[in-house]
Amino acid sequence: MASSVLDAFEELDEHGRAAFFRYLHRDLAPDPVAVGDAIARWQQSPSQQSVQRLHAVSESPRQALLRALNLGRDGTFRLVSMRSRFLEVLAEHPELEPVDQDFLHLFRSWFNAGFLKLHELSWNSPSSLVEHILEYESVHPLGGWADLRSRLEPTDRKCFAFLHPSLGDRPLIFVEVALTEEIPTSTDFITDLDRARQSSSRTVATLYSINNTYPGLRGIPFGNHLIKQVIAHVRRHNPEVTTFVTLSPVPGFRRWLEERPADETRGRRLAGEADAALRPGTTAEAVDAVRPALTAAARSYLLESTDSRGRPLDPVARFHLRNGAVLHRINWPASTGEHVINQSFGLMVNYLYDSGEPDPVAATASGHATSTHRSITDEETA
Amino acid sequence: MASSVLDAFEELDEHGRAAFFRYLHRDLAPDPVAVGDAIARWQQSPSQQSVQRLHAVSESPRQALLRALNLGRDGTFRLVSMRSRFLEVLAEHPELEPVDQDFLHLFRSWFNAGFLKLHELSWNSPSSLVEHILEYESVHPLGGWADLRSRLEPTDRKCFAFLHPSLGDRPLIFVEVALTEEIPTSTDFITDLDRARQSSSRTVATLYSINNTYPGLRGIPFGNHLIKQVIAHVRRHNPEVTTFVTLSPVPGFRRWLEERPADETRGRRLAGEADAALRPGTTAEAVDAVRPALTAAARSYLLESTDSRGRPLDPVARFHLRNGAVLHRINWPASTGEHVINQSFGLMVNYLYDSGEPDPVAATASGHATSTHRSITDEETA
Amino acid sequence: MASSVLDAFEELDEHGRAAFFRYLHRDLAPDPVAVGDAIARWQQSPSQQSVQRLHAVSESPRQALLRALNLGRDGTFRLVSMRSRFLEVLAEHPELEPVDQDFLHLFRSWFNAGFLKLHELSWNSPSSLVEHILEYESVHPLGGWADLRSRLEPTDRKCFAFLHPSLGDRPLIFVEVALTEEIPTSTDFITDLDRARQSSSRTVATLYSINNTYPGLRGIPFGNHLIKQVIAHVRRHNPEVTTFVTLSPVPGFRRWLEERPADETRGRRLAGEADAALRPGTTAEAVDAVRPALTAAARSYLLESTDSRGRPLDPVARFHLRNGAVLHRINWPASTGEHVINQSFGLMVNYLYDSGEPDPVAATASGHATSTHRSITDEETA
Amino acid sequence: MASSVLDAFEELDEHGRAAFFRYLHRDLAPDPVAVGDAIARWQQSPSQQSVQRLHAVSESPRQALLRALNLGRDGTFRLVSMRSRFLEVLAEHPELEPVDQDFLHLFRSWFNAGFLKLHELSWNSPSSLVEHILEYESVHPLGGWADLRSRLEPTDRKCFAFLHPSLGDRPLIFVEVALTEEIPTSTDFITDLDRARQSSSRTVATLYSINNTYPGLRGIPFGNHLIKQVIAHVRRHNPEVTTFVTLSPVPGFRRWLEERPADETRGRRLAGEADAALRPGTTAEAVDAVRPALTAAARSYLLESTDSRGRPLDPVARFHLRNGAVLHRINWPASTGEHVINQSFGLMVNYLYDSGEPDPVAATASGHATSTHRSITDEETA
User: At what angle do helices D2-11 and D75-92 cross, to 10 degrees?
Assistant: First the structure.
């Protein structure tokens, strides 16, 4: 029966799906009478039994439905796809938000990081598995299978993924790692197919790309667990590696610089100078002249600009700093990719995971503050 | 941190554990003030948002704790073991029941049958896996590895299990199956190591033993899903098999017969006659003389005696009848095992899973009623 | 030591290799004195002992050397590569032929078909394995990984290979199979990525491409064993398949037609007409007009033209007819590939493996004769 | 066809088998006329071609037969079994020896150590594989599966085997290894199920048992290769291990001592004293009093007593000394096993594989001589 409900859903067109989700929203809400009864009972005798009853009757019947659908053939995969469809509808109909809470509640339980298994992907992995890297790598997209092979070379490149047993051979998330001699300051190393593979002194592991593959799992956190497990794994298998960094984009920098309220004129002028310095034919001196002001602005954006809840404005900074990393270096220009130019004038940064085994977690709380004082360098790059 | 909490728990002695669970019970209850606030808000405006908030604040903080512990090393396995310990304490301290509700709530979500994978175990499976059959088979215990091998002979014996990826190589539950020419009327076939393996006409699959291995998962249902998946699997791989039955114990029969209120004297007399007929040296005629009355009583026990909620009194009957099977035949004596004698004078029954693929579920609702009228046979066997 | 000899060989340039093989030829021959002694002994007493001794002393010491080298790291793979190099030298220095006899003697023993394992390759196979199909498919070369995936679609395409445990993940030989509704008359189906995958009536298995991957194993026969095992495998797993055919090239047809001694003028004229009919803009009628004569000539070439040992002149015909197949149909034009045009005016043929399980072998001896009378059809194609 | 010949052979009784092997011997010998022709040709022109021809015609047709049988179902396994049967017949009919030469010639080629794969067996290996250890361990037989598990505990016990892809899951040979803190002087550690598994200082790997499982492969050498590969493997995976020794039986010692020609009276007296010292109730002093003379005699037997070809008389000593080991220590009494008492008064020895990686082979030639002077110790132990 679960299978046939899922089959029926997948036959629906756009309108049918919207109607289905409206039905979930409107008709599958908790019964107000039962809630009222449970409240009366609790108010009369506020025991654990009565509060558990209150908890039970206030649970949306949608959750029971979703749990039952999970029993259908490929149920988990298809429910994740269903939420992906739902998110499209939600964008147009924000009033359906309560339905999303039920998806999230269940998915957080089902995809608890304790159930995810770290897998190392290699050129010996099934083609049906590694093809997903080709498809979902969006940070540094791959040109084809030769590129893919290059990123799976075991001597100096690695790829790790979380797989979930109910989601087949499509990873939930994967991270690509390069073992290098130095902390990289630009993306050139990624596409270098002719690099020397052998080296005795690869002491740096650079996590240069993290990608999710299931839109339907938006909001379920795995990235921090993946990074921690990957670092622990590399530490164990490549004891010569002592430094763990990222080479990360700064997605909101241009927009912030061009619009920051404090000194808009100055911000726009600096943005214009940065763009000018990147034009073909510019001299290295012209770039050098802009760099100090641009990296200072970037530092200010990354470490001092916060949202209303005090969190870093930049989403990537927010992720890594909360995750215990510190901002290590600001590199400009680090990439000539059009996307990176649009986001940040080609500027990218290294976050440093300085995790001695004992306390990868301890740093988390104070990550942001620490990083202000300790790790930012002034001589950012060449 | 999760790991160290689990480590600390596992160091505790009996008293320490009881104290820990009392702490969970007393100190990790929902905050009454927050509950009160959420109630007020809902009463003011009974929207989905306010009922979801009510649901959220009435959730026990124990659940958040258990979810966090699941992130520790072997977290899932160790939480299942923790509940096993908890159940020991609960037996002495029934007031801790609310804690069990939280274990159950999480485990039902985590071990949703949609996440379990059916595995066929064989003599080619790892020793570390099949040794659990040796350890946990309690219906027809194994004498040793030769016995085990005999039960994994692929020509006429099979064994299926649900494994969960976070619980290593110990199955959650397993079922043993024999492919036979006839519906078995006694347990003799189980221990027959010298049987002929080859046969062209094995059209009966007998599910003769189902065992759980995790006391900590008591109350989480997998048995019905396992049976359905096993039947579908055998149907696909052994198309010559057309009949699916069990050979099941009747655990409450003796007690019921000796104590049934309706006609206690007659019940006790029949019990005495059954025991007498089983004594060494009895003639076949003596057995035949008792059989009609004894099987009639068993039929009455299995199909007509219900608890206060209208369910069959016998737990095994309750399981199979609710699961869509019908009572097919009552066999006496079917086993001379001491345990079976104590439970049911050596009487055992076949439940028939007459599941044409389309509607294994359809039968469920009417399973009990149907079986009364249709499938019980009068010439039970010897 | 074996490893270092192999290392040293692999460092040699072209001249060094030629010198090495000349050394093997000249200096590693059997000792004539020992041979003379063994002859004398045998002539004196022609026992089994003395003939075994004669056999032993007449064995080239090269064989002992090659056996010892096989113990080196990756020894087998590197010896196969060594022979590949040797064959290049042999082409220039035919006097080294005795050295090849020793390679062949050992390789026939080592790669006895009894040691080869049939593997079914699929999109779930390691990338490092299936990439060899991309590299070595020369009959119908692949455009890339999308093409490769299409040829590994399990619903209607299959690929089988012999792997040898000492040669890693590069197959010795592989065959590609399409399950189709009809016996194919042209190569169009091979590159059809948009075909319907599902069909209830695929009763034909077409073996449309066989490729070897190791030049160093030239002359070691596996193809016939592979075909027989593949047919048996498909028969077992796809019982709906009842017809096994090839779609094969006719590599020597053009040359034969243009040069055949019997009636050279007529042959050349027909070749010219065939070429003219293939030119762009030709009408279907023009093609139809040439077809009867061209297919009759092809039939004559394939079934009546033999070499001095009475074997079919055409190497592909020789292989399949000796292997028990019969010539089933001549298709023209079957391919517009330049290579096929050059070989055979685009003409290709189906060989039919009519192997009822019991006697795949029985047909072998009379394969050729049978095919003359029985299976060639006159209405070859459209 | 190959399969049916093998089937027919396996149906034969003892007499049938003897007749079959006599037929192989008598009727499948090389053709004397062809041999005579090839001789004449070679004498006329002693080229490589003519000696290769001589080699070819002097090959027994039995080899072609065996190669063809290898193509049958399970051909390799069944030919190995056939030789096992043949060896039984050969023991009664030594005149059939030439047939064995052909088996040996083929098997040496097929089971060239370059084709064998080292496998580490563990408790996670298939039961169908590890049960062969139970069956074929004859040096220190196992009491059952609990014993087996103990010998596969990964923390301090290991087991390695050579498997051949055509012989299924029965290893050709396996060796059991214990990681210990000291070089063991008795067999007590083998059966100690209650030992402490964890230890930080296991620097000694003791190869305490080597067993072959195929009687039909007698005379095909794998033991030396296995030992070298195992040492290399442990060295790589357990870098803390620096010492590799055996604890080996001395099978011919008692017989030699009781019969040695030089001083028979003295030998018999010493043997009597050794036996007396082993009787129940003997004091440690009585043992100590006999030890110096007994170990001196053992040293003399092992290192100075050679056969007509100058090789050590003792077969185990011959194997290890030729393989590059040196005699390290003589232990008495090392075992109270009846078999060991009968062979050597319970005396056992350690052979030391002092193989620094670079030259495991270099030691081979001088192994015996070296050991006389260097490694035997005088304070043998109790």
Answer: 40
Cβ neighbours of B128 in D, within 8 Å:
123-124
Of A22, A28, A17, A19, give the one whose Cα is nearest residue A85. A17
What is the bridge-based pairing of β-strands A204-212 and A243-246? parallel
Over residues C189-239, the pLDDT tens digits come to 887 777 776 666 889 999 999 999 999 999 998 888 999 999 999 998 888
Q: Give the pLDDT confidence score for residue A311 in this predicted structure.
A: 92
Instruction: Identify whether the C-beta of residue A66 lies closer than 8 Å to the C-beta of residue A80.
Output: no
Structure tokens at A256: 């912030």
**Predicted local confidence at residue C170, as pLDDT:** 92
Measured distance CA(C368)–CA(C327) in Å, rounded: 9
Q: What is the pLDDT of residues A85-113, one digit of tens each?
A: 999 999 999 999 999 999 999 999 899 88
Contact in structure between A48 and B26 (CB atoms under 8 Å): no
Mean pLDDT score of chain D:
87
State phi, psi for C353 to the nearest 5 degrees. -100, 95
Q: What are phi and psi of D155, to 5 degrees?
A: -70, -35
Buried b (16+ CB within 10 A) or exposed e, B342-368: ebbbbbbbbbbbbbeeeebeebeeebb
Of B158 and D371, which is predicted with more confidence?
B158
What pLDDT score does A106 carry?
92
- Residue C369: per-residue pLDDT: 26
* Cross-chain CB nearest to A123 (options C128, C144, C145): C128
User: Using CB atoms, which residue from A51, A115, A165 is nearest to B117?
Assistant: A165
- Convert the pLDDT of each residue in C96-122 to its tens digit: 999 999 999 999 989 988 888 899 999
Could you tell me which residues come within 8 angstroms of residue A199 by beta carbon, excluding any fewer than 6 positions away?
A156, A181
Q: Is the pTM of this model over 0.95?
A: no
CA D297, CA A172: separation in Å to the nearest integer? Answer: 70
What is the C-alpha to C-alpha distance for residues C166 and D243, in angstroms, rounded to an integer? 31
When scoring B52, B95, B228 by the number of chain A Cβ atoms within 10 A, the one with the most, hence best to mutate, is B52
pLDDT digits (tens, 9 = 90+) for C295-351: 999 999 999 999 889 899 999 999 999 999 999 999 999 998 888 999 999 999 999
Q: How many residues in chain D? A: 382
Contact residues for D291 (Cβ-Cβ < 8 A; gap 6+): D332, D380, D382
Chain B residues whose beta carbon lies within 8 Å of the beta carbon of residue D126: 123-127
The two structure tokens encoding residue C54:
């004669």
Q: Do A127 and C127 touch (CB under 8 A)?
A: yes
B touches A, CB cut-off 8 Å, minimum 3 pairs? yes
Q: Which domains does chain D have, with CATH numbers?
A: 2-110 (1.20.140.90), 114-246 (3.40.630.180), 253-374 (3.40.630.150)
Which of B297, B300, B175, B294 shows the shortest CA–CA distance to B246?
Answer: B175
B125: chain D residues, CB-CB within 8 Å: 126-127
| Per-residue b or e along B93-131, where b marks 16 or more CB atoms closer than 10 Å to that residue's CB | eeebebbbbbbebbbebbbbbbbbeebbbbbebbbbbbb
Q: Please tell me the predicted confidence (pLDDT) of residue C169.
A: 87
**Chain D residue closest in CA terms to C166:** D115
Residue of A48, A60, A117 with shortest CB distance to B98: A48
Q: What is the average pLDDT across B183-208?
A: 83
Contact at 8 Å (CB) between D58 and C62? no
The rounded distance, in Å, linking the Cα atoms of A170 and C148 is: 20
C160, β-bridge pairs: C120, C175
Which residues of chain B approach chain D closer than 8 Å at the C-beta? 123-128, 130-131, 144-145, 149, 169
Whether chains C and A touch (3+ CB pairs under 8 A) is answered by yes
Nearest to C361 by CA among B68, B17, B363, D2: D2
Say whether the peptide bond before residue C333 is cis (omega within 30 degrees of 0).
Answer: yes
